[in-house]
Structures are given as structure tokens and as C-alpha cells.
Amino acid sequence: MSSTGPDTAVSVILKLRGETCDIDCLYCFEKRKEAPGGARINAAQVHRLGSIFSWRPLSIELHSGEPLTAGPERIAEILDALAAQPNVLRVSLQTNGLRLDDAWLDLFERHCPELEIGISLDGDALGNSWRVGYDGRPTYPRVVEALELLGRRERNVGIICAVTPYVLGRASEVMKHLASFPAVTTVSLVPCFDAAVTRSTTVAGSRAPTSRALQRRAIGPTGPA
Questions:
Q1: Element (H, E) at 40
Q2: Closest CA to 91 of 60, 70, 121
Q3: What is the DSSP annotation of 187-218?
Q4: Could you tell me where the DSSP H helices lie in 84-170?
Q5: E strands of the chain, at which residues?
Q6: Biggest alpha carbon distance in the chain?
Q7: Which residues pair with 133 in a beta bridge?
Q8: How far apart are CA 106 and CA 82, in angstroms?
């Protein structure tokens, strides 16, 4: 891939698994889709990006739900397809970090050494009360493990931090915490302004997963403010 001109490239987000994710963030808009599911992007479709965009320079972000749920074989095929296109100047991947391990980082180094990694983390443990797993376990300790691994592997990452009421008013504390991880080089703050969310976004009548009980204990009975 060329290393020049990424600032002028067309930004393209590839959602590898649509709404599929392995955690249950309370504020996630994906769970409100009327028609969940659908076709998954494959390597053959990725090879068409050049012609679709008339061979303009491209900046590609692999997104989802959680892109790593596509599995290592599918991710490797897509990274190879992107690397084969000279107009792709930049590739990044946004992940919740729960699945990141040495095997994934080895795969990235083999198939796309210049891959940029972004981690979704809402500050510290308190801020991440809104981000829990379907297993009812907090995600924060597992993301910290991923950040520590990235630091040991000398990989730089950017953090996307959703600004919920549990982050508001604690900017200095939250930023100091994120800056304590050697791997973290940038932080993007994303306001969570969905005032309409006052209860679970799961389908009415569905069985409440264990994660919802954890959220209720963390956030209280009134929902987001």
C-alpha cells in the first residue's frame, strides 16, 4: 500500500458483520435496527472497491458491531484484498478489544503491517459501566488486558470514548487514566446525546440477558439522563 496522501483519500467504512457484536452496550444504536442480519462482506466484494470509487485514493476503516467476530480467516482475506489495491492508502480497525490477543496481532503483522487499531473504551472502570458483556461480566478489565498487550507489542492505538453521564465532569480524571497506557496515543471523545434512550433497546418481550441486570445495578432505575 502507498504511504502518501491519506489525508486526501475517500473515507470508506466496511461493516464486516453488520449489527453483530459480542458485548451489550446500553447506548448502542445497532440493536434498534428493524431488520437485523444480512449478507456479510467478503474478499471478492472488497476487490471491487477500486472500480467502485474510480480508483480514487481510499482510507478504509473495518467496523461492525465487532469486526473480529468475523474470525481470523475472513479478516485475513479482507486484509489481503485491501493490500492488493494500490489506491488503498490507509487501513484501520475499530474493535472493543475483548478478542485481541497475540494471535490476532501476529495475523495483522502478516497481512497488514501498517494496520491502525482503534479501541472503544469509555474512560475508566466507572465510565465503562455502560459497556458490559452478554455474560454479565464488565468489559473494562478485559480491555485493559488488551491495552497492556498492545503496549508490550509496541503498538500504538487510538481510543474512542463515548461521553455518557458517567464521564461528564470528570474530564481530567478520565484523560489522565487513558494517558497512563503506553499504547494510547490519541483519544476521540464522542458525545452520547441520545436522550430518547430511557430503557433497554432490546426487542420488547425478549428475555433480558444477564448483562441487563449488571447495567441496572450500575446505572440505576431511571436510565440514561
A1: none
A2: 60
A3: EEEEE---TT--S--SPTTSPPPHHHHHHHHH
A4: 102-111, 140-152
A5: 10-15, 58-63, 88-95, 116-120, 157-163, 184-191
A6: 53
A7: 23
A8: 18
Q: What is the pLDDT of residues 136-186, one digit of tens each?
A: 788 999 999 999 999 999 999 999 999 888 888 899 999 999 999 999 999
Whether 128 contacts 173, CB under 8 Å: no
Phi and psi (nearest 5°) for 204?
Answer: -60, 135
Q: Which helix (H) or strand (E) holds 81?
A: helix 72-83
Which triple of cell numbers denotes residue 167?
464521564
Q: Are 150 and 101 in contact (CB under 8 A)?
A: no
What the block records as the C-alpha cell of 158 is 487510538
User: Would you state the cell numbers that stand for residue 224, as one nine-digit string?
Assistant: 440514561
Q: What are the backbone angles phi and psi of residue 38, rounded to the nearest 5°? A: 135, 180
66 phi and psi angles, rounded to 5 deg:
-120, 110
Q: For residue 64, give every residue at least 6 positions away whose Cβ sits within 8 Å of its Cβ, in sequence order, or none.
A: 15, 16, 17, 18, 19, 20, 21, 70
Query: Is 162 in contact with 124 (CB distance < 8 Å)?
Result: no
Buried b or exposed e, range 181-208, using 16+ CB within 10 angstroms: bebbeeeeeeebeeeeeeebbeeeeeee
Question: What is the pTM assigned to this prediction?
Answer: 0.82
Cβ 75 vs Cβ 99: under 8 Å: no
Please indicate whether residue 24 or residue 30 has the higher confidence score (pLDDT).
24
Name which of 48-52, 149-153, 209-213 the model is least confident about: 209-213
What are the two backbone dihedrals, phi and then psi, of residue 197, each rounded to the nearest 5 degrees? -85, 105
